[in-house]
Write a structure and sequence with these properties.
alpha+beta, microtubule, CAP-Gly_dom_sf, 4 helices, dynein, single chain, elongated
């Protein structure tokens, strides 16, 4: 009789756990909830570019710390594309802010540091500096040096 009760309880618990859908969760997967905590590498800091395994989603770490939805340290990632599960809030608690479906929470073992992504994010195309302005002596009008030289070149080519 005890064996029957034990197998019924095990079957009941197992079926209850299997009925929970991973897709309904606003963080990683249900499997992530039971993982053993691993120490955080030094590069896991807010602002670091990462890839989320196994999907290779790219993004930036936006939150590192405890959450109300599960124990342990979770990393909130703002994804580059809307392939995530939230906007930085889970169950009404905001951990960071991003566009809808661009946020995801994962454990550290699902992250890979993306040095190439960091280099691309840090690279900014600097606009050429505006040409210095100077006052024209003959007309009292302010001209851009580049514009003035352009006009002079056009005049000289038309006259020649």
């Amino acid at each position: 009789m005890n064996i029957l009760n034990y197998s019924f309880a095990t079957t009941s618990l197992s079926s209850t756990l299997n009925d929970v859908s991973d897709k309904s969760s606003a963080f990683g997967s249900r499997h992530d909830l039971s993982r053993v905590e691993t120490p955080l590498p030094d590069w896991v800091i807010v602002g670091e570019s990462v890839l989320v395994r196994p999907y290779s989603y790219s993004g930036v770490i936006a939150y590192v710390g405890p959450t109300e939805f599960a124990s342990g340290t979770w990393i909130g990632v703002e994804l580059d594309a809307p392939t995530g599960k939230n906007d930085g809030a889970v169950n009404g608690h905001r951990y960071f802010t991003c566009r809808p479906k661009c946020g995801i929470f994962v454990k550290v073992d699902k992250l890979i540091q993306d040095k190439r992504g960091r280099a691309l994010r840090n690279y900014t195309v600097s606009a050429p500096a505006p040409a210095p302005m100077r006052r024209s002596v003959s007309r009292g009008i302010i001209h851009s040096t580049n514009s003035f030289l352009h006009v002079l070149r056009n005049i000289s080519t038309e006259e020649g």
